[in-house]
């Protein structure tokens, strides 16, 4: 999943760079594209954080067996 999120960041930033190079900074389409890229980056950041929280919760639910020697009971 992290590879997909990283790929989304790379694609979004390259779309922003290509938009700036081809359309120029004065074009309204460039600013619309940059706003969309920022939305994608915010979504990727949120997904990355949510994934990390889910991984931490899964790790907390895993059993951790501890060997115990009971010498009193028969």
How would you describe what is shown here?
The protein has 74 residues and is mostly helical. It has one domain (2-59). The chain has 2 helices and no strands. The protein has helices at residues 2-23, 28-61. The termini are far apart. The mean pLDDT is 88.
Concise description?
The protein has 74 residues and is an all-alpha fold.
Descriptive terms for the model:
rod-shaped; 74 residues; mainly alpha
Number of helices: 2
Could you name the ranges where pLDDT drops below 50 across 5 or more consecutive residues? Answer: none
Fraction of residues in β-strands? under 5%
* Number of strand segments: 0
Mean pLDDT: 88
Sheet/helix structural class: mainly alpha
Biggest sheet descriptor: none
Helix content: over 70%
Radius of gyration (CA) equals 24 Å
Could you state the order of secondary-structure elements as H and E?
Answer: HH
Number of domains: 1
How far is the N terminus from the C terminus? 51 Å
């Amino acid at each position: 999943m992290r590879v997909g999120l990283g790929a989304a960041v790379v694609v979004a930033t390259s779309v922003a760079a290509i938009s700036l190079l081809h359309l120029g900074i004065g074009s309204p389409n460039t600013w619309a594209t940059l706003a969309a890229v920022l939305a994608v980056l915010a979504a990727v950041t949120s997904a990355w954080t949510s994934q990390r929280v889910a991984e931490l919760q899964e790790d907390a639910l895993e059993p951790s067996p501890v060997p115990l020697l009971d010498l009193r009971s028969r």
